[in-house]
Each structure stands twice: as C-alpha cells, then as structure tokens.
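Researcher: We're teaching a course module on how sequence relates to structure. For the next exercise, students receive a sequence and then see the predicted structure as tokens, so they can try to spot secondary structure elements on their own. Here is the exercise chain.
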Amino acid sequence: MAKSPGCLLFDLDRFLRKQIKKRRYKLILSLFPRRKTPDDVQRVGIGEINNEIFKSLQKLENISLLDITAAFLNPDKTMSPEVMNDFVHPTVQGYRIWAENMEPVLAALLAGA
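Model: And here is the predicted structure for the students to work with:
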C-alpha cells in the first residue's frame, strides 16, 4: 500500500533530522525541478515538498538550506532542454549551474570549519 504524501513528508523530515545530527557540515538542497512547464503536476508537487521541508528544517540551528530551482529555469519558469534534456536529469550545463550555485555556500561552510 502506497503511503500518503503527508506520511512521505513526515518520513523524509524525520530521516533528514536524523542525518543532520550526524553531520559536521549541514547543507540541504531543494529537490530539483522537473518537467518543462511550471504548471506540470510533478513540478508543482516538488515545489510543495520543498516548501514543507524547508519550513520544517529552517528552525534547526547550524544548517544551510539552498534552493536553486530558479537557476535551472528560464525567466518564464519553463525549463530548457539544454539544462535537463529529459526535464529530469541535468545535462553538463545543468551540472555547471548546480556547481556554480553550491560553490559559494560550500566555501562559506568550509571557511567556518
């Protein structure tokens, strides 16, 4: 029997909290966007998951939350196949966007180590 979205969010939140306690560096990334258009049901669902998880985890201390969704999207919020050619998996350009957005956050975390 499949779990409800609420149960899945609860399980994910509990898992992340357990992992956060074990780690020295605590950077949580949002789930990456999927699908070409902003109104796609999967894109909307991922946005809702990101919002709920970040809302829950932002209360914790010594944690960095990073949502780079907008970096993968065009100004009209559509996704280009040059970034994710199947609208799910990053291309080389998608990985470059990911790295460029994570680098300053990782550098700051490591500088404070």
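Model: If you want an answer key for the exercise: Residues 21 and 62 are 10 Å apart (CA to CA). The radius of gyration is 15 Å.
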